[in-house]
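STRUCTURE:
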């Protein structure tokens, strides 16, 4: 990937930045000249290789914990955040006959509560024109549920979608737009690399959507291919 430069460099914060879609977005923003704060619980060799591209790698950030949020805030250290991408998430598998309440609760904490916690913690770092992206899933769509199961993941992503709409409404007066994005069926370890598009393709699509995001489309639930998805 060749490096491209923006006329105005942005500060981009990405959670879950050590692999998959998060890592691919770090690379896109860094190589086009933005300053990336890559938050993760533990770095990876591929993320470490981007450190010389104006990427600050911040380990020990479990966004579902108070300690993780404090580590994030210490790393950002008062800087203005132009783009905040809530990408960190987990997928577990429950069905009606194997209802694991612990994994359901864990998915709620990471997939739904943590992004809201991150947004709240960084409110004072956002400014007019800043953008927030929530990486969700069409599995959180009630209308699109054709197969059942996956209770914790579906419920947590539906909750995240609801939070995204409220954020969009609450932040309109501050000129902060919120994008709610389903990346597609992506070849990541979350799905044992069984997806139909690569992380690079999904990340490129999402970055383009964030670039194009305006207040008029704040709070809209979109597939990374641009399709508006049903709630």
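SEQUENCE:
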């Amino acid at each position: 990937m060749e490096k491209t430069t923006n006329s105005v460099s942005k500060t981009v914060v990405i959670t879950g930045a050590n692999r998959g879609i998060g890592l691919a977005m770090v690379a896109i923003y860094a190589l086009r000249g933005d300053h990336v704060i890559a938050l993760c619980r533990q770095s990876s060799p591929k993320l470490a290789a981007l450190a010389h591209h104006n990427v600050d790698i911040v380990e020990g950030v479990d966004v579902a914990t108070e300690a993780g949020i404090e580590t994030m805030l210490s790393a950002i250290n008062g800087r203005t955040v132009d783009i905040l991408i809530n990408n960190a998430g987990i997928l577990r598998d429950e069905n009606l006959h194997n209802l694991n309440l612990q994994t359901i609760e864990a998915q709620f904490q990471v997939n739904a509560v943590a992004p809201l916690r991150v947004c709240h913690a960084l409110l004072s770092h956002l400014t007019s024109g800043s953008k927030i992206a929530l990486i969700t899933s069409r599995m959180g769509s009630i209308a699109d549920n054709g197969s059942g199961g996956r209770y914790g993941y579906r419920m947590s992503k539906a909750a995240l979608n609801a939070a995204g709409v409220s954020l969009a409404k609450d932040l309109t007066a501050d000129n902060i737009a919120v994008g709610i994005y389903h990346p597609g069926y992506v070849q990541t370890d979350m799905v044992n690399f069984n997806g139909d598009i690569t992380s690079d393709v999904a990340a490129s699509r999402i970055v383009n959507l964030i670039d194009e995001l305006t207040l008029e489309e704040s709070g809209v639930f979109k597939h990374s291919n641009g399709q508006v998805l049903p709630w």
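REMARK: The two ends are 36 Å apart (CA to CA).
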